[in-house]
Amino acid sequence: MTTAGYNPYESAQLQFDKVAQTLELDSGMRALLRQPMKEFHFTIPVKMDDGSTKVFNAFRIRHNDARGPAKGGIRFHPQETVDTVRALSMWMTWKCAVVDVPLGGGKGGVICDPHNLSQAEQERLCRGYVRQLYTQLGPNQDVPAPDVMTNAQHMLWMLDEYEVITGGHFPGMITGKPVGMGGSLGRTEATGFGLVYVLNGYLRCIDKPIESTTVSFQGFGNVAEYAARMYTQMGGKVIAISCWNQADAKSYTFRKKDGCDITELVAIKDAFGSIDVAKAKALGYEILPGEEWLAQDVDILIPAALENQITPAVFPRISKQVKIICEAANGPTTPDCDPLIQERGIALLPDFLCNAGGVTCSYFEQVQCNLNYFWSMEEVLEKLEYKMTQAFRGIYDLAQAKNLYMRDAAYVIAVDRVVSAVKMRGWA
Ligand code: NAD
Q1: Domains along the sequence of the chain with CATH
Q2: Mean of the pLDDT values across residues 342-364?
Q3: Residue 221 C-alpha to ligand 1 middle, in angstroms?
Q4: pLDDT at 155
């Protein structure tokens, strides 16, 4: 999934090179951290329902596990690329470090389109993935999770296959499991809520009440839905939401200037986060072209859909009213756009901080599985808010003290923690 000339792996490496320079890392450390430590490229033969065999290409990439077992999702996507998985595994390393959970970074992917696979074929694909890789997985080694087009059911099939092969119960081998089967309460909400904890932390620092702010979202999937719910519950106003429409393969922006009603929009969206255009129109929403989410007169933009959406080409369309970009998706801003954002004095809350609520809750899931004792929703959310707010505060304070862009401050903190672990282990 490489978008319009931007390769996410190159973006991730460029971002790393910049911080390596700031931290004056030596060449050995740079060489170690600017690429993954282990890559598995493999094929998965799957017996299809019609009796034929189809072979799927798959990856698991471990960027760095100096701070703990590698952690990261497995994506199912027809346009998956190894470079996307590499970039995402690298971002997972920084994400786990920035929120200070004892985990490293990994990511997986299978080139497939689950829309065209039956449930039974998806189950065989999940089990096949684990059969090819089980010696490299496990609670103390590498812990997958759901990601693009994978869900709790896929995770449970993978866990079951692992337990059948290894002969025991190892619920900490994978996260994002269904509640009642080793999953944690709050995991569904965690990424979106976590983002709002970070955003609100920043608004408090600049003495701007959340109730006085407005937002435009790109995306209305898992992350955006729960972020929008929490944000509006706290008094903020969502003016526009853009999402993909499967029916005509186009994106649309849904706008209500006096504020979108999130509950009513959730009621008319499908499982892939697409809002029904006709029903939204009937509810009084203006229907605008997909890219209009970016041009709204709002205080905050939340890109929560895809990578490479905020580029120098579209940057001039961003309203002068926008003072904050809160990155929910992974890599929504291209590196060449960061200087423009800085020049305009927009505060950028970086992706690997803002969307770290998911992995933080996955870590809580592992802890609960290890304890074999599960927390209430209140306990999970209280711990999540604490972790996210602490992480944000560290970044904000460093950015203020050293006059740094918040993405750079987050990188300095995260990379420095990984560098310390690598040094303490004597790897470099
Ligand atoms: P999702 O699949 O649930 O939703 C994606 C949303 O993006 C949908 O509403 C879809 O309609 C919309 N979309 C797709 N193409 C679009 C386009 N061209 N224009 C406008 N909208 C478009 O995904 P999600 O789980 O909400 O994840 C969103 C982003 O956050 C991804 O980058 C993902 O990697 C990242 N992320 C997710 C989690 C998590 O816990 N779910 C954690 C960390 C990061």
Answers
A1: 37-95+104-173 (3.40.50.10860), 184-428 (3.40.50.720)
A2: 97
A3: 5
A4: 97
Cα–chain center distance at 257: 29
Distances (CA, A) of 243 to 177, 224, 287, 383: 27, 10, 11, 31
For residues 86-114, give the mean pLDDT.
Answer: 97
Instruction: Give me the residues paired with residue 245 across strands.
Output: 250
- Distance from residue 305's CA to the centre of ligand 1 (Å): 4
The one catalytic residue in 71, 95, 107, 237 is 107
For 15, the token pair is: 């971002």
At residue 79, φ and ψ (nearest 5 deg) are -105, 25
pLDDT tops 50 at residue 1? no
> Among 90, 198, 222, 266, which residue has the most ligand 1 atoms within 8 Å of its CB, making it the best to mutate?
222
Using CA atoms, how far apart are residues 70 and 426, in angstroms rounded to an integer? 19
Q: Is the pLDDT of residue 2 over 50?
A: no
Percent of the chain with pLDDT over 70: 99
Provide the 3-class DSSP secondary structure of residue 220.
Answer: coil
The pLDDT, as a whole number, for residue 3 is 55
Q: Residue 107 catalytic?
A: yes
pTM of the entire predicted model: 0.94
Evaluate whether 11 touches 329 at the Cβ level (below 8 Å): no
Q: Which residues line ligand 1 (CB under 6 A)?
A: 148, 191, 218-224, 242-244, 251, 273-274, 290, 304-306, 328-330, 355, 358
